[in-house]
């Protein structure tokens, strides 16, 4: 019998936590036992895993005794407080918050790209931001093919990237509209129904949002290209699930559209949907619920030398968060790191 | 008494035609008489102008006798057939279709930018594509300040850019969703509710859409910069009215964020909404119904020298179409060209 593991999911009531639970079952993750944690508010409520009811516990200092793998998606504050305790108790933590991502001794991993970095872990491995993951997936094969020189990324991000409250906000605003009532935002800064909001996370002095700065820093760290010039614009759109990113990428050596298409297609976790004649290109409603990221609209950028435009879409709850987290754990098991 | 004109609106039942009618009244355009035309299908129906009922006529070869100014927004086919007849009958045609835009002897005009080009008209003046207008409005002051070197434009386009059918499609899809019914697109290639579609107009061999190629060619013609490198991505989003464009612009000489802000603010028809601390930036739901275009998120692009990122939003039925058309006519009157 192959080895199984005691697993904890922290933040199980969130959008990413719920997807994590679904994927642990879907992928037959080698679970020996599963503990599910959330805030005090959800303690005592139940979730179902493989047909079995599990009672949600409030996370606390002693929650991680005997846990081998702790999958955190409860936000940075909870991660800062409890991830070190989980490590102390002997668990490996896969953290989906931004708390530790830029710490030099914490690997920031997309397994298809830099799984090798897992070897250097000190107990915590960070999962990148959802937009960073979806953007970096096609960048890696392009980087390998022609060495990236500059990247301009412009996003169309789904409300579930902001968690269950984001989903609820879009839903209730749309129902209000359908009922002829006034639209009142409850979660986002502004109405998201029939709108786009060029503001995700908080603003810094330089005019960029946290989401935009994360994209720059995380793409650099994942690709191990610390100086790569990246220019980001991140925007919320009224889509439930799956982030889309319009990418403009310049390379040191020319990569033709055909070469890029082949490189994308050969890359694990990436698929090419690019058949304009058949109106075939990736879109959120078709990518929602899928594990892979999808690339289309691949075309030469005639405005400069050695540049391509393309469009990538990924389910940010899956590959952008929960799936990538589980893939990190699977990769660590395969590498004998857990 | 100042001069008044016999005006015809061709395509009065469309989204742009309806807005044209509204704006002629709103702006007290010097109308002596108004004729309203549409296809045979709408003939006999009525529209209201300044409290008066007008009967819609089917456009035909003899529709333009005695007309001074004909405002066309009935699509390229109708423009190709009837605009030359209107000119022959003595009218000046302001055409909002793409039919004549790239013809060398047809001025393509945004009055704030290149009204002087009107002097060369031979009877037809073209109004640029809605996305081109909203994009070029902030580009002009930036071009004047530092000479544009390269532009990357990524759009978030409202459904009313596709006319009344686009509006109806989003509405009925959203109502179906609210009623728990299946969503079936009637106008767009795919579902637009809760989705984004990276496809506007038809695809060419090079992988770009007609909308994208229009943006490149029209921005160059309006700015009189025939070689300006422009890299476009155009995307439909579930917004009713107002297009948003994320613009990355490189200039020959450095333009600071402060200089750009001042240049934008001083430019007629352009306003700066850029106060991150107050969550203030342009968005479609706030710009809908406004005449000006609004710029925000102005920030230095740290990925290359002399580049800025910014975000511009404009009501594409107003400044992007109907308003710009009427402004062309007003400018021609002022210049003594009509």
What does it look like?
The structure is a homodimer of 338-residue chains. The first copy, chain A, has helices at residues 15-26, 76-88, 111-114, 130-146, 164-178, 210-223, 257-266, 284-287, 318-334, and strands at residues 5-10, 31-38, 46-49, 52-55, 57-58, 69-72, 92-95, 124-126, 148-156, 230-233, 243-251, 270-272, 293-300, 307-314. The first copy, chain A, is of the alpha/beta class. Chain A has a six-stranded parallel β-sheet with strand order 5-2-1-6-7-8, sandwiched between helices. Chain A has a six-stranded mixed β-sheet with strand order 10-9-11-14-13-12. Chain A has a two-stranded antiparallel sheet with strand order 3-4. In chain A, β13 and β14 form a beta hairpin. In chain A, α4 (130-146) runs parallel beside α6. Chain A is globular, with a radius of gyration of 20 Å. The two termini of chain A are 17 Å apart. The model of chain A has no long low-confidence stretch (mean pLDDT 97).
Quaternary: homodimer
pLDDT averaged residue by residue of chain A: 97
- Mass-distribution shape of chain A: globular
Q: How many beta-strand runs of chain A?
A: 14
Going across the major beta sheet of chain A, what is the strand order? 5-2-1-6-7-8
Order of helices and strands of chain A: EHEEEEEHEHEHEHHEEHEHEEH
Largest interface: A-B, 56 and 56 residues
Q: Helical residue percent of chain A?
A: 25-40%
What is the gyration radius of chain A calculated from CA atoms? 20 Å
Quote the beta fraction of chain A.
15-25%
**Uncertain regions spanning at least 5 consecutive residues of chain A:** none
The structure class of chain A reads: alpha/beta
Q: Number of DSSP helices of chain A? A: 9
Distance between the termini of chain A: 17 Å
**Sheet bearing the most strands of chain A, described?**
6 strands, parallel
């Amino acid at each position: 019998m192959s080895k199984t593991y005691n697993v904890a999911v922290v933040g199980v009531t969130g959008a990413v936590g719920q997807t994590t639970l679904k994927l642990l079952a879907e992928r037959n993750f080698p679970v020996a036992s599963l503990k599910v944690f959330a805030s005090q508010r959800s303690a005592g409520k139940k979730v179902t895993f493989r047909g079995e009811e599990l009672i949600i516990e409030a996370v606390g200092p002693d929650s991680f005794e005997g846990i081998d793998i702790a999958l955190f998606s409860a936000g940075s504050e909870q991660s800062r407080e409890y991830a070190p305790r989980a490590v102390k108790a002997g668990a490996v933590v896969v953290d989906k918050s931004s708390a530790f991502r830029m710490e030099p001794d914490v690997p920031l991993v997309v397994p298809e790209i830099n799984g090798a970095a897992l070897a250097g872990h000190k107990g915590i491995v960070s999962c990148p931001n959802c937009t960073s993951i979806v953007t970096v997936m096609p960048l890696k094969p392009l980087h390998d093919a022609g060495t990236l020189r500059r990247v301009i990324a412009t996003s169309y991000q789904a409300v579930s990237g902001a968690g269950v409250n984001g989903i609820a906000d879009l839903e209730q605003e749309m129902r209000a509209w359908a009922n002829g009532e006034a639209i009142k935002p409850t979660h986002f800064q502004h109405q998201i129904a029939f709108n786009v909001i060029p503001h995700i996370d908080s603003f810094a002095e330089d005019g960029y949002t946290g989401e935009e700065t994360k994209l720059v820093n995380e793409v650099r760290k994942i690709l191990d290209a610390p100086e790569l010039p990246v220019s980001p614009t991140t925007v919320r759109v009224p889509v439930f699930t799956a982030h889309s990113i319009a990418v403009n990428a310049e390379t040191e050596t020319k990569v033709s559209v055909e070469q890029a298409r082949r490189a994308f297609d050969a890359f694990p976790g990436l698929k090419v949907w690019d058949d304009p004649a058949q109106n075939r290109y990736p879109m959120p409603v078709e990518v929602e619920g899928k594990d892979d990221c999808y690339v289309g609209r691949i075309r030469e950028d005639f405005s400069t030398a050695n540049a391509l435009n393309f469009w990538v879409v990924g389910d940010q709850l899956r590959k952008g968060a929960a799936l990538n987290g589980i893939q990190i754990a699977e990769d660590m098991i395969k590498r004998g790191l857990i």
